[in-house]
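Database export, one record per block. Field names are fixed; values are copied verbatim from the stored entry.
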Amino acid sequence: MQRKPIDKALFLGVPVFLLALFILNITAEGEVKLAATLGSVGLCIGFFSYLRSRRFGNRYPIEKLIEKDGNFVVFHFLQGLDRQPLRVNANTIYALNFSHHYLGVILESGNGKGFDFHYPHKEAVIKARLQVVLGDDGFNNVKKNV
């Protein structure tokens, strides 16, 4: 799963622009300082709203983020520009933790090896996809929200 060019620009451009507004806020006075402060707050709210929007979720369908490849489950990362997807044997998954826009995968009980994924989908959508990928028996054998 490749990140779209507009998303790369957003993930790199927004922090740079926020840094510029912060420097402007430190050095300016009066109305310019107020405008820089309001601009940075508005930019943060807009950016996080976009990340939680349905439009962003539609760009990254859950079927492409969590895939099945034989006996392996492939989890794609959204964060990290060139990060390789996590490929694990379905039988080694010990537990799954769900939350709003979050999936935690814990492998093999007792070793402390886990992975966090931040997906632009709700908990029910992530659960439904994992139930399809793991199958009913596999999904029921895995512990949830431990």
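Remark 1: The chain has a mean pLDDT of 83.
Remark 2: Residues 5-27 form the longest helix (23 residues).
End of record.
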